[in-house]
Each structure stands twice: as C-alpha cells, then as structure tokens.
Amino acid sequence: MDLPVVIDRRDKTPVWLQLSRSLRERILEGQLAAGVSMPSSRELGEMLGLSRATVVKSYTDLISQGYLDATPGGGTFVSRSVRRQEPGTEDTGDSAADNSSPAMERLSVEGQRLMQLRIARATSGDLPELNYGSPPVDMLPARQWKEIMISHCRLQNPHRLDYQPETFGDFKLRVAIAAYLGRAKALRCDPEQIIVFSGSQQALYYICRLLLDPGDSVVVEHPGYGGARNAILSRGASLLPVSVDVDGMIVSDIPSSDDEKIKLAYVTPSAHDPTGMIMSLDRRKALLEWASRTGAFIVEDAWDGDYTYVKPPLPSLQGLDRDERVLYIYSFWKVLYPLLTVGVLVLPRPLIPVFERAKMLAERQFPLLEHYALCEFIEEGFLERHIKKTRSIYERRRQALIAALSSVFRWSATIPKQSSGLHLCVRFSMQFPETELLECARAAGLPLVSTRPYYLDNAPACEFLIPFAILSDSEIAERVNGFAARIARLKTDIET
What we know:
CATH architecture of the largest domain: 3-Layer(aba) Sandwich
Distance between the termini: 66 Å
C-alpha cells in the first residue's frame, strides 16, 4: 500500500518517534483500519526513504502500546482492539444539532432549518428488531435476480449502455411498472407519469421541496410515519395530526378552518404505519372529495402495500382519483431488499414539468443495469409470482402469531381485526412498565418494539410491534409462550 507520512528532518524529535506518532494518529483517525496489514519494515523504509532499523523501532513502539499486532512469519497488522477516535459526539438523531459553529452560520435558511430539526427515528425502517422493515433474507428471489443481472452484465448489446436522456428512469422500465401498478394496484397512469428513484424517501423529499413553503400545513396520520414528518418539518411547514381508527384516517376530523393553508395530506391507506390498518373505501372516497373541494394534494404512500391480507384488495386512492390530486409512492423495499431499493413516484400530469426540471438539476443518470434487470424481472412475471408465494407464507405466520397471542393472553392483548404488512401491532393491558415487558420479550427471543416514536403525544402504554415474517411458525409459538412465562414469573415476584 502507499502510506504517505511527513517526516520533518529539521525537527529534533527522533525520526522513529515522528513515524510512530504519525502512524498512531492515522490509526486513531480510522485511516488505517483495524486488521489492516502494514507494509513490511523494508517496504516502508524504501517508501519513506528511511532505514529499516528506524521503521522496526517505530513498529516495536506501536506494538508495545497496543496499536499494532505482529505474528511470527505473518506480518504486522493494525490491532483490532484499538477504538477509533471520533472527532465529536455522535448525533443520536433525537435532538437538534449544535448550530453555533461558524460553518453553520454560513448555511442557507433551509440548511439551518435542517440542523435545528429534531429527527424522528426508531421507526420500522431503522430497527434491527423489525428487520429494518424488510423481508427475510431466505425469502428473497436471489437466484432469479442473480441470473438476470448476470445476463445483463455480459454486455451482449453494448449500445444499450449509451447515455440516456430520460431523467425519470429507463422508459421501458417505466412502461413495465405502469402496467404492473395498473394490474396489481388499480392505478390509472402512463409511463410518462412515473419517476424511478433509488429509494422511496427520495420521492417524499421531492414532493415536500416542490409543493411546500414555510407556513403551509400538512395533514398527517396520528400515529404515523416519522420520516414523513421529518420531510414536512424540514420545509418549515406545520403538521395537522388527525387520528386513525379501524377504518384509517378519520377524514371528518380534518380541521376545516385551515383549508386555505393545507397543501397536502399524507396517508398510508394500504398499510397504516404503524398499526397496519387498511383505509376503508368510504374513507378513501371522503378523502378524495375533501381534496377536490379544498384543492389540496394527497400523498398516497403505498410503502407496504404488497402484503395485504384482506380480500378482495381495495383500489388505490390514485386509481379512484378523477381530479389529478393524488401523488402515489411505491417501493420495492418490502419485497426485494437488499437485492433492490428502488422507489417509484406516480405524478398527476400537471406536475410532470416541475418535477422533470427538479430531477434534471439534481440527478440525470441512473443505474442502467439495475433498471434493465428490474424491467425483465417484472415483464417475465417473477415479481408477481414472488409476491403471491411470499404473501401466503407471511399470512400463515401472521395467523400463527395471532393464534399464539390470543391463546396465551386472551383479553390482555388487543389485536387489530385486519391489518397488513410484515409486523403486527399489539396493545397489552398489563400493569407493568414497558421496560419490563421489553426485557421479558428480549429474554424469550421475541422481537418487540414500542410504538411510542410514531406518536407526537399521548402515546398509549404497552403498545408494541411484533414482526412475524422473520419467524417460522414453530418459533412464533415457542417465543410467545416463553414471553408469557416470563411475564407470569414477573407477576409472581411482584405479588410476593
């Protein structure tokens, strides 16, 4: 390896000590990572114009301090026990950042607003307990995806890799996506309305940037997705939280006095985050009527819309819309991550020009091979067959979790009558602190996550998310029983 090190010949400090200090600094700053093989003393000496004896003395010094490890005949390595020295305290994401440094003062108004924003985290996409909201690895169609990617990597038609002027993504892929969304989600859209992003959060960012100004208001579900709240607040807009029930957002609770200021309503009708509730057809029609009357846009986030267990499935808001008021977000995350993270935004036609200009300024290229592979994956029917197969498996596991909880906890657990997604929202009526229940679940190996981060205020006690897709049927019963047994022991300990 090349290892640039400055040795000051005018410095009275011994050269071996200068080298030792320089290497130690590189190790602490992470430029030389733990486990990295160091050049031999002869190689480093030739590289730096130093004698081998000088390098050996420096290496010996670092070994004695624990920064390097040496194995006889195996070389010298950066010690794996050294902790990298961080330049500052790591931001945990639950508080605003320090905005007092001179560099921060030079930021734009938007940049300073971002630095003052309290970032809401700990939602399904952030947590290992919920598998980051993604499918189990053993359920991925890895073989089919690998074969398709390999076939496109062979470059049998090199001209296909020429620069493409399509800022919204490969057009043939958008044709395939439009056809798929029409079949599976009852969308009414043409390829020209579709933008392909590397992830669905990008779509949300573009929407907020192009449609919101400081002082605008946005209707959001309560509880709801923290990432959407972050994007909205980053634009200086305010939140109008509206409660949800078994039929989704209670549209009649949207405050009428703020109609003039309301620019957007953000909803997750196919799988409410976090409860998994599905918005009823009547509520969908009421929300569309409200948007038509007020002139507001609706952002329909179908982030988890592939795994719904209600039959027949309901049409999307976008498919019911006749006034071009709905922006539809779709993600392949729940189906194909980590093979693919692609997100899709379907625009009302009047908004195509402004999004095209914004996309052209921010990013004009896209990963061609990935787009070609996804296009083939959809056109050959792999996507729909995979969803059909895994949906039946996840539905069985969901029923197994519901049965186990109902059998063990009976009236002490409230479970939604209908829900979608890869986790179940459960509320326990027990006189125990959440921390105690979480500890019992951890000891039993049952993934359990509090829903508190989804609420702005008045979060209910002992409401949790339990992922079922990542557990087998036998694991579900075993872990729920273990969880219940530990709660029973906890109760006995308190009574005695």
